[in-house]
Amino acid sequence: MSNNEQALISEADRRAKNYLAATTERRVFPDTETIAALDIFKETLPEKPQDALATLDMLDEYGSPATVVSNGSRYFGFVIGANLPIAAAADRLAQSWDQCASSHVNSPAAAAIEKAATGFVLEALDLPRDAAIGFGTSATACGLSCLAIARRELLLRQGWDFDRDGLIGAPEIKVVVSQLTHITVIKALRILGFGVSKIQYAPVDKHGRIDPVRLPKLDECTILCLQAGEVNTGEFDPFIPLIDTAHKAGAWVHVDGAFGLWARASKTLRHLTEGVEGADSWTTDGHKWLNTPYDSAMAICRNAAAMAATMNADAVYSNAEPDAQKNLTLEFSRKPRGISIWAALRTLGKEGLDEMITRHHNQALRLAEGLRGAGIEVLNRVVLNQVLARLDDDALTLELVKRVQDSGKIWFGGTRWNDRAGFRLSVSSWRTEDADIETAIDEITTHYEGLR
Fold first, then answer.
1. Where are the domains of the chain?
2. 174-178 and 132-136: which strand pairing?
3. Nearest-CA neighbor of 137 among 288, 297, 257?
4. Among 177, 192, 224, 240, which has the minimal tally of Cβ within 10 Å of its Cβ?
5. Percentage of the chain with pLDDT > 70?
6. 3-state class of 353 per DSSP?
7. Run of H or E residues at 437
8. CB < 8 Å & 24+ apart, contacts of 10-19
9. How confident is the model over 14-38, as pLDDT tens digits?
């Protein structure tokens, strides 16, 4: 490493440490003046090379203040976990390795560690130990992969060679999703060509769970998509009766568990996921409740051979083992996303993971209790880490959200529930302490009293 390169990396590390040290002092969301200062990046491409340290300085001076402090303790906007120190450190080291983690021949280290991460994830979530995991960028991309696998496999069972003949003339594959399915599932289905007008929606109960009694008819050409953690209420579809019905009909069951699937790692919350292990595929994120860096998600498939066949990317110049990550994910060239997941799970262990998930649930319960005490209506049962609330008037609800956001002390966003305005707080950062929950309660109560 040259002196210039060493100095640049050291300076980046110094600035990163300073940023992290100041997270409790920053506004959770930047003010308008700071955002306006970002106009400095609206420049034309320089004709000549620029000083690297000056570029880094510009990035830190104007970029850092304008960030959302989701890596702090008082961000409740979405299910976004702060980076666990070991996950961030492992990602930092892996970036220095600069590995193309597509297969063993590209990186023996990455291949071995991501296989180890596969074992850790399947054990932590108590899913079939012979399942395959593709470490992808997001639940959106990983969900797309799982749905593609499901369609190909269902067609194969009907004697249709999807790889050779495509979709023209193929038996129709139907999709049934929750009435409250996440938009990323709809996006994946749309990209795969299912057509949003063809999607069938299963009615839900008052908590946002699919009602098994009103489930649309399923058959051997159906993909049923279930939820582990509805985004507003945090609720779970009743897996046992739904999966049993689906499999008796010959349907494929996919579970969107971007954050809720991690409830299986908590002894207190595991009951919410009873029966989910019977599904055919699952998606979950590391960068939500596991608190790993972004671009850390997982496509999990019970039938490892079906996954490898669907996602295969072998070429004349690049043949690899069936379970190589390039044969399990959308990407050919990719970073070793599983390394930070491995590092987080190895460092937390079963007890540490259980403690973190359970603590966040307890903090969400306290948050709901505090809001009720202030006279604010809490709409959900708080079975997980989501707190859904609203005021009597929609306009006042939106104004409360705006006032809290403008204060900069905490941040959460608005939502809609039963066609009315509401707001949602997610507790998912390892940095969030009980004192931060009390700060959130005080802040919301103060602004609510101001509105009254």
1. 88-345
2. unpaired
3. 297
4. 240
5. 100
6. helix
7. helix 434-451
8. 11/53, 11/56, 12/56, 15/56, 15/60, 15/64, 19/60, 19/64
9. 999 999 999 999 999 999 999 999 9
Question: How far are the Cα atoms of 9, 109, 297 from residue 97, in angstroms, in the given order?
Answer: 14, 10, 21
The dihedral sign for the CA sequence 41, 84, 139, 413: negative
CATH classification number, 88-345, choose in 3.40.190.10, 3.40.640.10, 3.20.20.150, 2.102.10.10: 3.40.640.10
H or E element: which one contains 135?
strand 132-136
Rounded CA separation 325/32 (Å): 43
Q: Render the burial of 68-81: b for 16+ CB within 10 Å, e for the rest.
A: ebbbbbbbbbbbbb
* Radius of gyration of the chain from its Cα atoms, rounded to whole angstroms: 23
Q: What are the start-end ranges of the E strands in 220-313?
A: 222-227, 252-256, 281-285, 297-301
Q: What is the pLDDT of residue 276?
A: 98
At 214 the pLDDT is: 97
pTM over 0.90: yes
Q: Mean pLDDT, 10 residues at a time, over the chain (452 residues)?
A: 89 95 93 97 96 96 96 93 95 95 94 97 98 96 97 98 96 98 96 96 97 98 98 97 98 97 98 98 96 96 97 81 91 95 98 98 98 97 98 97 96 96 97 98 97 85
Mean pLDDT, rounded, of the chain: 96
